[in-house]
């Protein structure tokens, strides 16, 4: 009876609701916070001036919420916001689902957010959600070198070129050097090197793995490390895997 009820509940769920609840917990919380924050700004309940990161505001005026809100505001409701949320949830989800455990992905987010906060004053970047998203895109692209992608159905390339294609697209669209994406690639490359390359050079040492006390906070039962086949979850739309067998004509 309980199984039949669960099956009935699943059938009654709308596609959007199913998509939402299928996201792993960290990605779901980040995506939800991003959309809710933009709605609150659009409704003039809060303003962007209350959300951006400022060293003086945080540590002199004790406005500690800015350490988080700088990563969840991508602008008011617009096509640009949809574009950012699309990439945020897609590649965050793929990394989280392919990770060895929730502790590893949450530790990656902690490393990336702290590093971006330290770099922010050097490049005068008050909102850091886009660099964080770019860092996740870069890490995923390097871990899936054989995955073929198509951008807007026009350009076909392998995954490691994705960050550079997005930079070029941003440069053409906005006419300015995409400092946010460059900073994200820099942060993502450091993590990728010490997590995926350095262990092969140092007898398996992994300096960027989470400490045991952090793992105990998140892990219940250890998950098996994902493989490149996790990339098959991506749908065929913006920056989605291209068909393997393409018509040469």
Brief overview:
The chain is mainly α and 249 residues long. The chain is built from 11 helices and 3 strands. The termini are far apart.
List the helices and strands and how they pair.
Layout: H1 2-12, H2 15-22, H3 25-42, H4 55-59, H5 66-69, H6 79-98, H7 102-123, H8 129-143, E1 148-151, E2 155-158, H9 162-174, H10 179-201, H11 212-218, E3 240-241
Structural account:
With 249 residues, the chain is mostly helical. The chain is 59% helix and 4% strand. A 3-stranded antiparallel sheet has the order 2-1-3, with no helix packed on it. A hairpin with a 3-residue loop joins strand 1 and strand 2. Helix 6 packs across helix 8, helix 7 (102-123) packs across helix 10 and helix 7 packs across helix 11. 29% of the residues are buried. Residues 1-8, 225-238 and 243-249 have low confidence and may be disordered.
Mean pLDDT: 81
Please give the alpha-carbon distance between the first and last residues. Answer: 55 Å
* Largest sheet, spatial ordering of strands: 2-1-3
Structural class: mainly alpha
The main pleated sheet reads as:
3 strands, antiparallel
- Beta-strand share of residues: under 5%
Q: Give the overall silhouette.
A: globular
Q: Supply the number of helical segments.
A: 11
Unreliable stretches = 1-8, 225-238, 243-249
Could you spell the SSE succession in H and E letters?
Answer: HHHHHHHHEEHHHE
Rounded to an integer in angstroms, the radius of gyration calculated over CA atoms is 19 Å
Query: Which bin fits the share of residues in helices?
Result: 55-70%
> How many strands appear in the DSSP assignment?
3
Oligomer: single chain
């Amino acid at each position: 009876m309980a199984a039949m009820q669960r099956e009935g509940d699943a059938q009654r769920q709308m596609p959007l609701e199913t998509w939402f609840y299928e996201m792993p917990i960290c990605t779901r919380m980040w995506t939800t916070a991003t959309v809710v924050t933009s709605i609150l700004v659009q409704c003039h309940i809060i303003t962007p001036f209350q959300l951006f990161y400022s060293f003086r505001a945080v540590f002199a005026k004790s406005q500690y919420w800015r350490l988080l809100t700088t990563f969840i505001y991508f602008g008011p409701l617009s096509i640009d916001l949809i574009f950012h949320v699309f990439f945020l949830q897609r590649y965050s989800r793929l990394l989280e689902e392919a990770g060895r455990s929730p502790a590893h992905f949450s530790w990656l987010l902690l490393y990336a957010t702290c590093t971006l906060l330290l770099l922010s004053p050097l490049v005068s970047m008050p909102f850091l959600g886009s660099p964080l998203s770019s860092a996740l895109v870069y890490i995923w692209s390097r871990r899936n070198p054989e995955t073929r992608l198509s951008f807007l159905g026009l350009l076909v390339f392998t995954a490691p070129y994705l960050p550079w294609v997005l930079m070029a697209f941003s440069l053409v669209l906005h006419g300015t050097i995409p400092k946010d994406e460059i900073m994200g690639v820099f942060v993502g490359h450091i993590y990728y090197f010490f997590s995926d390359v350095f262990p092969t050079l140092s007898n398996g040492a992994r300096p960027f793995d989470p400490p045991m006390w952090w793992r105990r906070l998140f892990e219940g039962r250890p998950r098996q490390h994902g493989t490149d086949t996790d990339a098959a979850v991506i749908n065929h739309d913006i920056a989605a895997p291209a068909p393997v067998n393409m018509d040469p004509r």
